[in-house]
Every structure is written in C-alpha cells, then in structure tokens.
Amino acid sequence: MGYQPIENYGIIGDLHTVALVGMDGTIDFLRLPHFDSPSVFAALLDHRKGGRFQLAPVFGEARQKQLYLPDSNILLTRFLSEEGVAEISDFMPVEEAGHAHNLVRRAKTVRGEVRFRMVCEPRFDYARASHRIEQKEGTFSMCSFWYVECLSRAGDIEKARFFFEKVLGYANHLDLYAEELGPCGEHLGNFPQAFTHLALISAAYDLNRRLSAAGQEA
Q: Global pTM?
C-alpha cells in the first residue's frame, strides 16, 4: 500500500497513548497500553510488515477529508463519491478508573448504499511477537431474530428475509434452537430456549405481514 504523507494522518488518544488514522481509514500506528509500549500497528514505519487496521468504504473513486467533532478528540474521516457518502468515526475513551485503553471505530453510511471493507492485521512488538485469535463465546440466537425484526420494521424487507432464512438454517433436526450458536454452528447454553423461539415467532409474524402488504401493493 506504500506510505502516506504524515500530513494525511489525524491523531486520537486516551492520555496514555495515541493512534494515527490515515485519510484512507487506516490506523498505521498504535502502541498499547502506553506510548512507549511495543507496537500493535506500525505500518507507518514498515508498510509491509508493520501491521495496520483498515476500515473504509468500497468506492471506485472518492475524495477524503478529516475533521474533529467540536470540543472533542473524536476524529471523522469522510469519503465522498458519486456512489455515496461514508464516514468513519474513531476515538479512544478516556477511562478515569482502570484505564481500559479501548479503540472505538464506527462505520456509517451517510448517503447511498455503501459496502465497507475491514482489514485488521496486528503485528505485535514491531512484528517480532506471534499472535492468534480465539473465539470462545457464541452468538445469542434471540438477538439474531431481533435483528431480523428490526430490519423488517425498518422497511428493509429483502435483507430481513435473507437473514431470517439464514438463521433458520441453524435449527437442529427438530427445528429447535438453543440459547446460543457457537463459532461452528453448534448449539450452546439452554436448549431449547423459550425466549429464542418467542423472538422467532415475533420476527416471522412481522416479516410475513410486511411481505403480504408488499405483495398486495404490487
């Protein structure tokens, strides 16, 4: 990806360390938990091996601009294209107790229909330390059906139907659901889970009602 000019970076921090956010939505420098700690991302120093955290819309061509929310250290990176307008918000909360050192990134579509691409490539201690990622907890099935109902109520019928059919595929041989789904689709927690099935019924009812209304209008 090469190197960006240093003037293309905004800075965020939590009074203990800082991160440099490029106008392309990439964090190219971050050391945790303190400014003199080993690196997590350091593509600013070595764009091949340093590591980066990229979050950006998928546009053919776009203009970028950065600004801070008034009286804050919340950095906005905006992407303006004929295809739409997108915005990335970055900040590090200042924790008075515990010093959690969190990095918060939010992707937002301002106009149009925008797809985002995220690439997280940490290279700890200037790429000298190895690392691995583990997923130990599953997803709550009830929340998945809530999400479907929220999409339906918001009028995004096709997306709601797509996710509803996808979640239905995780039922067991009795068409029942557990409290959670594991990383490989295994059922975890209470089984069968009553609240999950209530959420399923509510999502199915709302989606069916709106699909029927859409059919009548057509």
A: 0.61
